[in-house]
Design goal:
The protein is an alpha+beta fold. Helix 4 runs antiparallel to helix 5. The protein starts with a strand and ends in a 7-residue tail after the last helix. Strands 2-1-3 form a three-stranded antiparallel β-sheet. A two-stranded antiparallel sheet has the order 4-5. Helices cover about 55% and strands about 15% of the residues. The protein folds into two domains: about 45 residues, no CATH class; about 90 residues, no CATH class.
Length: about 150
Amino acid sequence: MARFAIIDAGRVINHAEASEEFADQQGWVPAADSKIGDFWDGKKFTPPPAPEGPSQFEKDQSRYTKRAAVKDELMAYMAADNMSRVRSGVWSVADLTALLDDPAVVAANALMGTLSFELAAQQIQAATTPLLTPDIKADWTSRLEEHYYLEG
């Protein structure tokens, strides 16, 4: 008994153990190291091409779906961070209002709303208001960077 590949339309669809005589009658070929799904060209087996990965659109959609899931959390963190400064007396309500009117902060908030976290981080870094200290900028930017999801 030997192992044979059962071929249909040039593809291995199964394997069977049989005598050579029976396998010849069936049109089966010695299986060698073939696997189901391999191609048979009459002389040798070749594996099928590797499946294609996700398209760029699918990768982008996955990235933005992940960003959408954390957007509100990020914005809530930044708002709570701001309020903690008001509550502790570091900032006044007027300071917070001025911060929220700052063009770079307005742009960053709008960009976060469109899931453009890289551009939002750039706006935060570019903000010139003295209220956004280097530590605050670094904190907010690093939180955005954690959710870029740029794989692939």
